[in-house]
Amino acid sequence: MGVMEKVARRTRDAAAQATPLPLDQIVMADCIAAMRALPAKSVDMIFADPPYNLQLGGDLNRPDGSHVDAVTDAWDKFDSFAHYDAFTRAWLAEAHRVLKDDGTIWVIGSYHNIFRVGAAVQDLGYWILNDIVWRKANPMPNFKGTRFTNAHETLIWASKGEKARYTFNYRSMKTLNDELQMRSDWEFPICGGGERLKRDGVKVHPTQKPEALLYRVLLACTKPGDVVLDPFFGTGTTGAVAKRLGRHWIGIEREADYCAAACQRIEAALPLDERALATMQSPKAQPKVAFGVLVENAYLTPGAMLTDAKRRHRAMVRADGSLASPCGATGSIHKLGATLQGAPACNGWTFWHYEADGALRPIDALRQTYLLATQP
Amino acid sequence: MGVMEKVARRTRDAAAQATPLPLDQIVMADCIAAMRALPAKSVDMIFADPPYNLQLGGDLNRPDGSHVDAVTDAWDKFDSFAHYDAFTRAWLAEAHRVLKDDGTIWVIGSYHNIFRVGAAVQDLGYWILNDIVWRKANPMPNFKGTRFTNAHETLIWASKGEKARYTFNYRSMKTLNDELQMRSDWEFPICGGGERLKRDGVKVHPTQKPEALLYRVLLACTKPGDVVLDPFFGTGTTGAVAKRLGRHWIGIEREADYCAAACQRIEAALPLDERALATMQSPKAQPKVAFGVLVENAYLTPGAMLTDAKRRHRAMVRADGSLASPCGATGSIHKLGATLQGAPACNGWTFWHYEADGALRPIDALRQTYLLATQP
DNA sequence: TACGCGCATGAATCAGGCA
DNA sequence: ATGCCTGATTCATGCGCGT
């Protein structure tokens, strides 16, 4: 079967006559027009990854001189916040009509757009159930050192109203999270490796989402056989995961290139083997604690003195978690330890000690105390 | 000294005449009126923890003064959102006026209000720099098992405009985070234990923020001696941490109970020793040294050869501090480095190396030596 | 085959001072 | 406002290549 044969091309009028849902198909059209053609209260869940309206300045180069490939596509350009808001409210209103009364909607965004989206969601009568933070395990750094590393994106999960009886598979989520309630912060790597769709070595879509993210969303809020609509289908992550999990899907996408890639991808996706489900859970990472966190949380006070085990070196703890030696040298626990010893590297956690009850103890002991106090 | 003596009671008119800032004081008044009484462009940072209000019922009134007793139908919802938006825009506008042009504002909230706050921030011309996620190490579980555990709150950090030159202590944040860039997701325990203010065993304020959170905010975005304004002061976490870190603070709070608790708490807070307050400085803060100065002072001799770390490029030092490549290209250390690499820019200090004791060392090391020898 | 090294790259609102 | 010069700045991951 040809790749494009499953892509339904519809004019708005033709689509309006089609009563049955275009299940497991891609509708190549503008999302507002395409949603208008769908019956009211017909889908169980909507997952939407709308344009973020990034407002990027000039070129950005890495410290090594290489160029950052930014999102410059026309579909992300809006003239003003007012235009973006109008667009947002239009598609959210249509989504509200199409969604079943007990269905829910998910929208993902970044600080560029998510506040406007969230306000529109509330204004249109949706009832926000959670905001979810996708913590990126491997975000792009802030190359110029001008801000905090932008290391997360935000998802909004909402029902059609306060009293809607939505689907939430509490047990599935708890099982997935090692028998602890699933929290509102999720950690996943960004989409890369073999999962990232490429054509001639170039990424097909600039913002392809990881399947693990959609997997959790669909597992949490839909039942097998449910219909999931994605009005900004892109390269079809939602469709691929829905097929794997035995859910029906409808994708709406304007760009022919994206439609073709999505169609091919979903064709190749295989419904999930039950045994594979268990192996999808990533082991919980060993929590890391930065030395500065101990200062912030008053386990050590700025001004406190540290020494090495043999009291050959001394250093004072400063407000930002750096150390200052009486000789004038400063640096992190690792760097200053290395400097004072003339060594290329040093594990500051075991090198530096603090005095308690007349005895020297490594600062690593404080880290263990902190972990015990904060980890469930 | 009595607890309340430091609390300045001001009517709006009386305050309007007061030109000097009420530094290190609590102003017991409505925050919008109190901010109106402050001079324009007078504070370096604002930290705001506004009421969340929505969907909790209770103290919500319509613009006409009538009471909203239940937020049930869509119309009431819209009505209350509009009211909350008006309040939000009013205090954010006043904050914009009071803030110095190169100052920044922080606002914290949850999904109940943060989307409305964020949209207002953008609409008022603030430029969002980051949104920050406070991941709670020990959140309250979702008892009914109907949603994800609400385990985070969101902070928005914004400047007064796109081109503002705000304070961001990059090196301090990197040091605090074990020599990795500080990310946009921060983990802290919720406020409890001895830090939590209680009276007769009952918590004084329902949403007291942890000091560790304010510690990081103030350390990241202010300098010692800066003025920090908190228009929703509550029990004064911002003031207590500001005092500890050697920053001035101004607190605005309507409730006398909170003012009293905050005043007592801040009285008891101890400022850090000045030396402990010192933090890691960015190279930007160091005095500049022109490469030619090193040649003048015979740290390098004209005619000496430099290479990059991988010995792919070579250049000769000339008498005026410019470099000449064997291929004929010439220029400053930066310009020639960029030219030879075909890069848009280059930091010559770290790109070019000289040979000493059989090893390559960056010429930046010579600059450090020069600085140590010449700085008092 | 295994391991190490080099290189590429990801939704990014990414510089500042002076002439 | 514009242009020019100086010079500060990156983390995790995957893939290809060489030993």
TrEMBL record, chains A, B:
Enzyme Commission number: 2.1.1.-
InterPro entries in UniProt: DNA_methylase_N4/N6, DNA_methylase_N6_adenine_CS, RAMA, RM_Methyltransferase, SAM-dependent_MTases_sf
Source organism, top-level taxon: Bacteria
Sequence ranges assigned to domain DNA methylase N-4/N-6 in this UniProt record: 43-262
Domain RAMA: 273-373
Reactions that this protein is recorded to catalyse: a 2'-deoxyadenosine in DNA + S-adenosyl-L-methionine = an N(6)-methyl-2'-deoxyadenosine in DNA + S-adenosyl-L-homocysteine + H(+)
Pfam families: N6_N4_Mtase, RAMA
Keyword check for tRNA-binding: no
Coiled coil (UniProt feature): none
Class of enzymatic activity (EC top level): transferase
Keywords on record: DNA replication, DNA-binding, Methyltransferase, S-adenosyl-L-methionine, Transferase
Family: Belongs to the N(4)/N(6)-methyltransferase family.
Protein's recorded name: Methyltransferase
Organism whose genome encodes this protein: Sphingomonas corticis
